[in-house]
């Protein structure tokens, strides 16, 4: 298989997300890193790109330069990853889609629901891939949960319980720490802090594994550290379009939790439990049976899990490989288009612009409900109502 | 120490709660089982009481007989345990208090808030002990949580997260099982099923460890099995009079959970986590430190934990001993009164009529909020507003 | 059922084992505590016995007095528990058996193999119960392990792996602590310290669950704290008479382990894992299947487990109830004899003099092998060779 | 940093270890995959190499061709990985070292102690890197264990307890499965099966974290499945040159264990516990303190752990990243040599030929002791006696 090529906007020196994307894209050898505009300080970005091995003429100073440079090349990149500050996602994603590039955008896709709807419409009109990086959906056993639900192993899903609660912002004396402060400042973070940052991952997973969308929700949002304008803890009750009831807790003051992303599903015929911190085990309780441990890598799991598994049973697999699974999905999606064939359904699992849009709508609904004493709000984007 | 004596109403042949009370009361030798009216079928109750070693004249056919018989004896029982069907708790408790007996009543204390207020007033007026059996507060490490909060180890408590979610009513085909059906029938169970049955224990624990009372709450109650009139799953957000935010999940359809009672506390200076299924470990996360395991039985815990511990560190201790701790508290309370001295503060932890009253108010508030799309409701009993 | 009566030798004020026996014997109401010689300081023992409610004439100053007093009573105790210093077990047990009493002796049964053989022969000749307190065999799920092996669920057992490794003697500066020092002093403790104290429990469990006896063994015994004359850590490899290979690790310097008793079985058709610190779960791996969690209290376990279970599924049950199960077994054994009927086979599980004898032989074999660089030694008592 | 280049011998189509090496070498971008002789079927290997992107002239048919081709190139590979059948490791490693290449050889380094000594001498004489792939030493928290021991956090290490016990060869009906049978056949596997395959990893880790070498050992080796000529289960007791006592259990019939590599250290001042299946937590028990959880990625760990960490705290990291850490060490070692500077001490942790030699000596000692009823054997290579 010829390698695809790939470029990145953002993710300059010192960023955490840049290396994660390069690692994820490169892990399986699907994508060669071929172009970049890595820093808003143009000279720094150019130099850093070269230090990472980009050719001189493809380490750009700005995303506009990169757009201009790549669009005219015959060997232009097959995929553009957008990992810039949130407020710029919309403009960059839009511009690259309009120029005919497939895009993987960091979450959030945009800052408003209207922008997200525009991206969804644009990607559909152009017939281009516009993925959004809800990376936890790449874990093999998360994909297996989805497969089990889809094939009916659990019967109708009555309830989904999701959590993403950590304790890394529990220190009130950190209030002036610039790495933390901006997150709770509406001017910089928008209408929501902890829910938009972490809770939304848990909500995406609830949708991903059930195959359902959120219709309405009620939120109790609080600032446990009183100086914060935005919430550091929220409980969200929701309803899904397939009839499932949802409950989601997110927190950044939950001392004792290191990461705290977990998912429980309760269906008519069984329950499932998975936690990101121990991602290689999935606990399955069949109705009337005993709790069983499903191991990543065991024989005869679903095609979705098998495709996303690299390491044999018993060895720990972790987050970078989950991340790489999204890139592997995208490689398959791009190749299938190039080759004019249907893509492997076990790869057709990457989050897409619609997910980004639904997430934006959920975030705004949480903020609205939180301001209104938990009043139930419509959580659907207008275009899907 | 001379043994105290003790009698029981209810808990006849085949009941689960009867043996638990006899075991708890007898475990430390504080109470001798001396009288009983064990069954609403009078002859059966008399025979069963004799088979348990009660003297012929103190194995009564009805609670009214027992009241009449005991009140005139010079060696009348020191404590009466009421473990009859819920609807009879009020009348029996009231009658025995009026006759000057100390009472331990099973939960719920009454069927209405008004009745509970009457019991609270009566016990206060008579200066009698009226305890309510929220038995999980007897676990040594639950008492240690309370002690840690009280002495300030965690700073102000920002958030308490409680769960009591099991999966034992998840089988929809069980709908006609008489052991389950009545629980979801308002005619028999009142305004609430799963919250009143299990959730209220979790709420009591949240109050017990924080030393705070609930002021208002918002509930999302659902019947995951649609044929049930009362809820089998509920999420309750609440506020406490010391400023703590609360979140409580209870469920009976959570397949994979065997019992599912757990408590997390998040304070300014640290977090705590405890689960009933592994009650001998308490997880403590000090702010800026590492997660630590506090073991039941380790040296230099609090007096509250030490007093409630019988078995050395490392050995499993379980529910029957937690139960016995309530009886040990009551023995100390009764003896202190008899001897005209202050009771050991480490024993002054048994749940009392006020807790039963507050629980009733919470149950009614949950039902009201659940019927009103989660509208926030006052959860305080009228007499405490 | 009329209560049986019960007396105790040893277990005076301040002892740990005394309350444990009284709790275990009294828990189910099978035995009334009726006589005692509780302390080698006669006056203290008499006073303590009275404080526990013994009648004046049955709180004895010495075991000889108790023997003389009880043997002539028509209501003499049905069972005598011996919980005195190790060196006195033989003489007391022998004297009471000769006088026709059933005996439960603390471990070790004797100080020598010869003495143990004498007790075994005596108990058989008198047709009396002589039990030895290997109390961990009372746990419901340990009994269920035995039942699963017996009914063939695991096929032939290839390997048993046992551990009893704690860290409570890891502090070298404790060398002069009198509560610890004597344990490592051959003059007081005999030929073995940690193996005889803890390892022997794990070995008994290996025998109990497999239904096999140890034939030979090889031991590596070390004193990790160099000032100790006897071992504080040992690894024992052994062979059993049903062909099972055994491995057993015991330690008192294993910092991080609070108790550390666990058992793993590996058979042709499946594996089992159980640990005392979480005694309410048993992990079962069927060949070709998935790891499953067997819960104490779940429906359709074995009669052996069901009989030993008091509390419903999901609630923690612990050591005191395991202990009580031995007393319940003994009550059934005594009653069956009195009533001239076969005893309930699910109760016929209490450790007996033969187990005490085999344990003595194993301890001497470990000491001998340890002194001889791990040379394999016959671990069978002479009378069973 | 310019990329280094790297070639591989073995690891052709369908192999498990080939992708693991390519992933590990490529993950951080240190090494470009530049040459290979991937299959003993020459044409298949050439074609597979090209499919992986190797240039036509560097996808070789045999390792001899690769040696001839690479040795004369000015851009010859910086590192050669040997992942061929065990019996060929010696000849290939020797030839490439003699030609001046750095080598990373899969375990076992050789088939005999004499060969391993020859490699050690050769590498030293040539001043070349000869690493051996004991990949578990790449886990960040394993490296942190080593750092804690080295800086004295635990005091003198009294005991190390290692396990590598899985259940994947427990099915006796698998006896004719060719993927399993050869492992227990001395003609193909040498003197040891399970110890040489898995146990040796655990032994290497015991040496790695303590910084000590094994001096003598006693082994109990058994074939639980009787048709196997070589052992499928072994217990090894050993002594180390710093005075630490060791115990190691390895098994392939331990049903219920998926992987089963774990390590416990017990020192004068504390204990540590780590297990490969949950590699992101390390349990630390300080003497007189409480069990604490050390998290991979937490601030202020050792430089050794920090250097080996890519993902932030709370996210799961797994085996592929551990593997990549060895390649990162080798890249640093090669670059330091090229640049004539001392290498980063936190990278100087890759296993080397001496480790391979010591492992060979241990394997032969285990086999010898196993044949001789556990007699203690010298486990040191002759050149280190």
From TrEMBL, chains A, B, C, D:
Domain GFO/IDH/MocA-like oxidoreductase: 142-273
Superkingdom classification of source: Bacteria
Residue stretches making up the Gfo/Idh/MocA-like oxidoreductase N-terminal domain: 6-134
Pfam families to which the protein is assigned, alphabetical: GFO_IDH_MocA (PF01408), GFO_IDH_MocA_C3 (PF22725)
Name listed for the protein in its UniProt record: Gfo/Idh/MocA family oxidoreductase
């Amino acid at each position: 298989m010829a390698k695809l090529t790939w470029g990145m906007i953002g993710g300059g020196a010192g960023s955490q997300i840049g290396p994660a994307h390069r690692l994820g894209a490169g892990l399986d050898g699907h994508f060669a890193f071929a172009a970049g505009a890595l820093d808003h300080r143009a000279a720094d970005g150019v130099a850093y790109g070269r230090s990472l091995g980009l050719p001189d003429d493809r380490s750009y100073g700005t995303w506009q330069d990169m757009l201009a440079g790549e669009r005219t090349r015959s060997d232009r990149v097959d995929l553009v990853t957008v990992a810039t500050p949130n407020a710029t996602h919309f403009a960059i994603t839009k511009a690259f889609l309009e120029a005919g590039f497939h895009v993987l955008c960091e979450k959030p896709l945009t800052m408003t629901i209207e922008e997200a709807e525009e991206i969804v419409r644009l990607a559909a009109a152009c017939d281009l891939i516009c993925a959004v990086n809800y990376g936890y959906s790449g874990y093999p056993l998360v994909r297996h949960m989805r497969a089990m639900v889809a094939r009916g192993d659990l019967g109708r899903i009555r309830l989904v319980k999701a959590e993403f609660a950590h304790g890394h912002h529990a220190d009130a004396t950190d209030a002036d720490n610039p790495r933390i402060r901006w997150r709770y400042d509406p001017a910089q973070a928008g209408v929501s802090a902890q829910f938009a940052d972490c809770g939304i991952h848990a909500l995406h997973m609830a949708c991903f594994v059930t195959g359902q969308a959120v219709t309405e929700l009620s939120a109790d949002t609080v600032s446990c550290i009183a100086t914060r304008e935005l919430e550091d803890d929220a409980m969200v009750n929701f309803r899904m379009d397939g009839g499932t009831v949802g409950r989601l807790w997110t927190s950044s003051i939950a001392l004792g939790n290191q990461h705290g992303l977990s998912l429980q599903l309760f269906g008519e015929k069984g329950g499932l439990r998975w936690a990101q911190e121990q991602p290689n085990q999935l606990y399955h309780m069949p109705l009337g049976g005993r709790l069983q441990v499903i191991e990543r890598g065991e024989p005869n799991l679903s095609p979705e899990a098998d495709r996303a598994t690299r390491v044999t049973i018993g060895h720990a697999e972790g987050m970078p490989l989950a991340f790489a699974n999204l890139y592997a999905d995208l490689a398959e999606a791009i190749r299938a288009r190039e080759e004019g064939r249907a893509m492997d359904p076990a790869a057709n699992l990457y989050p897409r612009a619609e997910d980004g849009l639904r997430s934006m709508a959920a975030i705004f609904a949480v903020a609205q409900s939180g301001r209104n004493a938990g009043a139930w709000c419509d959580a659907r984007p207008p275009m899907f109502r």
